[in-house]
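Example 3.2
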Amino acid sequence: MDQKFNLGDRLPQLVDKIVNSYNADARMRHTDRAFLPSPAEVRELIQRLLELLFPGFHGRQDLSSFNVPFHVGELLPRVAHLAYRQVDKCLCYKREIEQPGSASGWQADSPCDKEAWKVTNWFLDRLVDIRSMLSGDVQAAYDGDPAAINCDEVILAYPGLLAIAVHRCAHELYDKDVPILPRMMSEWAHRETGVDIHPGANIGRNFFIDHGTGVVIGETTDIGDNVKMYQGVTLGALSFPKDERGRLIRGAKRHPTVEDDVTIYANAIILGGETVLRKGCVIGGSVFLTSSVPAGATVAITPPALRMKDRSLRGPQKEAAGKPNADFQI
């Protein structure tokens, strides 16, 4: 070992110091427990799911009508294995947390095996329906963006579609009460795209997020069909309900409901579980809303008064023009 990295007598002291910090704060360590999902395998699961959902676009590209059945036949067992392993770990993690002492150390046999296989098989059966939903999302993006050349470009290049694709998979697992894994999937998409969709959000058909960056959609949001939104939109919570002891009440409806055919323009902020955007309404850019909007209505803020400085006039020219400040309002 290089001498400069030889800690010598300091090594035992540093080890004790760091380990003592582990023991002092159980929130930031995962020891003496057996189960935890793997971030690396979750990433691989997402990539393999994208290959199944968008054949020829993600992963292998030399596919034909002849070899695609063989490709899917090779891919499905890997997806099943990855999904099972992570679902199993997450279910056992929840069991271990809720029932301390139910497991200790690494175990050869999983106590959650049957439920994990049940969820995994159910999830695999849902892939065709997920593809059907995504087909509508792709078409909505192409129809809603005049800059789109074709649907291929939407699939290959649009961050909003990628975020929606991952969300539709994560939401299925969320609905089956699989802990942690759906959120890890959604946060992978968040890091990749800048679009933050909680896996609990219910999103209807033909959903289009244009540009995408900065969009936030909260856990209890309900979104109908044919909804379009732009970058920077927040569908968030107005306040967090608490019980009589001041603790947050989890699972309560905290986020807005967006009905069919609604358009929400850039940087609009819509908050509150009782806020409903009725069918066909339009929410203008930078609007801040905490109350419901009637069907078909348009909501916009009053344009701000802008002041511009005329830099073409200098010194005496300003006085002669009667514009001592050379400012004018538009």
